[in-house]
């Protein structure tokens, strides 16, 4: 039997139908004897390592990436944690088939899966592998898909850069442990790049991937200059909506990692750039910074309206306080990036690379927007085009860079001159900090403000590899304890010359809607059985449809469906051979089951090839919720060639 998979339904899991129609699809699968396709030998065992939970294209998705020792067919199995008894996944756990390839930077194989159609406020468990060869189970939790949320941003773990992988791992693990213990409800872990010291050093990757928090909270991984020089970064992190065109790489795509990507998590559009690529090609083609700007422009134009905030993430800080503050590429980008970011309404930029903390003033078109903005202001009100640039310090303690003095002779408006309000600091930075102490950045995303904090996750004490190896450090647990705040700012967005009006809409009490009960998983009819030497038959049931109608109009509604032809490559047979027997699984909302439809094999009719009623309610029906199901009966002539066929069942809701 073909391993089951899940068809991706468009849009959000729940569909509201105020009036008119809405449709979604089921995948239907049936295998004929001998027509197995991707089924792997369940007995062939593999070991799995480096499992990481990644961010998906939106809050209803997660991407799981891992390494395996064997080149077998693998999958991720997912089930609500509440349905797991004594460690056993339930029979109806949903599986997502993995894709991947042989590793090129090391031995073994890589696999990834996109988990789709997650429900909000649900605890899930998952494992990777195949029947008889599973990884341990891990868990994550979704939260409300609307409204405020918090995420954490980490700079440069760069495992191995102190020269001691174990010490670097210990600091990284402790920052993750502390940060997620102090903030258990955070929804994303965003990295600023430089996960490891040496791009293809798998011992360093194993140390980076060791903390279990990376399997519990979705990670949005950003590529750094230490990650880029090999394929291990891409093998360890599959990212959503990724453009792997050559202009988002620097160098040979077969041996280096790269790509720009974006995702929307609730109210934030995140755009993540491979800032290793920045040199504009000499042949006049689009590349380097110009390509990144074109990418950001395109994504914002297409998707900016789908989110309230736009946050960019890339590794190479362009406004930072320490060793890299005067780098040539850094200063070049102050010219290449900033006007575009201002014009596009970017709210905040998260950066790494300089192993020190800084928060910029509101920067517009590469200049301080408001000369009166005070250093360290706790409330910032950027005007149109004002962008806040944040650089994270080391999350692991593996390496710190010390803050450099500004150069009063540097008159370049994009240069490194001093701040007139605070001459020890660069003109662009409101806050600069370096204490040789691990820290992380917490961002609270709220309806009308972003709250950004830089929080200590350590003191001078171990684990703090750079200090353990001799770097000075003066913090004390009494003076600046773990959890104390280095910087906190509330960013208030600009609302133009008019007034924005916002209203929060709770779950509607008067609406008609429907959703697929549970996952929109593949309806697998298994292997068809031959009957009397004349025909094949396979049976099963659709994934139930939950219909709710709380409108006071008591208007009639109906749910209907039709099926496409069944296909396997260029082989096909008619969808008319599918019949069904609708039923009301749970009564409510005035639901009445539609009429049974026999297979076209029985009556030479059209079966479900034309639209048929699954259920309906008349005008004046009771308000409430119903669950509709249907038993499927597929009969077709035995001259159909063997294969693994699939069809699509399109569900349509109608109401007036
Ligand atoms: Fe870096």
UniProtKB/TrEMBL annotation:
The keyword Signal applies. InterPro entries: Calcineurin-like_PHP, FN3_dom, Metallo-depent_PP-like, PAPs_N, Purple_acid_Pase-like_N, TAT_signal. Residues 151-357 form the Calcineurin-like phosphoesterase domain. Pfam families: Metallophos (PF00149), Pur_ac_phosph_N (PF16656). Keywords: Signal. Residues 401-414 have a biased composition (Basic and acidic residues). Residues 401-422 are annotated as: Disordered. Residues 50-142 form the Purple acid phosphatase N-terminal domain. This is Metallophosphoesterase family protein. It comes from Micromonospora globbae. The lineage of its organism: Bacteria, Bacillati, Actinomycetota, Actinomycetes, Micromonosporales.
